Amino acid sequence: MSFWLRHLPSLPIVVPLIAGATMIFFAEQRRRPRIVLALTSITLQLVAAVTLLYLTTDRVPDIWPEGIGAYTIGGWAAPFGIVLVVDRLSALMITLNALLALPVIVYSFARWDRVGVHYHALLQFLLVGLNGAFLTGDLFNLFVFFEILLAASYALLLHGGGTQRVKSALHFIVVNLAASFTFLIGVAMIYGVVGTLNLADIAARWPGLSNDDRGIAEAGVTILGIAFLVKAGSWPLNFWLPAAYSAAGAPVAAVFSIATKVGVYAILRVASLLDEPIAPFGGSWLFYAALATMAFGIAGILAARQLQRLVAFNVILSSGTLLAAIGFGSPGILAPALLYLLASVLATGAFFMLTGMTERMRTAGPGEGISATEPASYTAFSVGEPDEFGPDDEVGVALPATMAFLGLAFVSCALLVTGMPPLAGFIAKLGLVSAIVDSLTPDADNAPAWLLVAALLAGGFAGLIALSRIGMRLFWSVTGRTIPRLSVIEAGPVTFLVLLCIALTVGAGPTMTYLDSAARTLHQPQTYIRAVLPDAAAGVHDPETAP
Amino acid sequence: MELVFALAIGVLTASGTWLLLRPRTFQVIMGLSLLAYAVNLFIFGMGRLLIDRPPTIRDDGALDPALYADPVPQSLVLTAIVIGFATTALFLVVLLASRGLTGTDHVDGQERDT
Question: What domains are defined for chain B?
Answer without folding.
Answer: 2-50+68-102 (1.10.287)
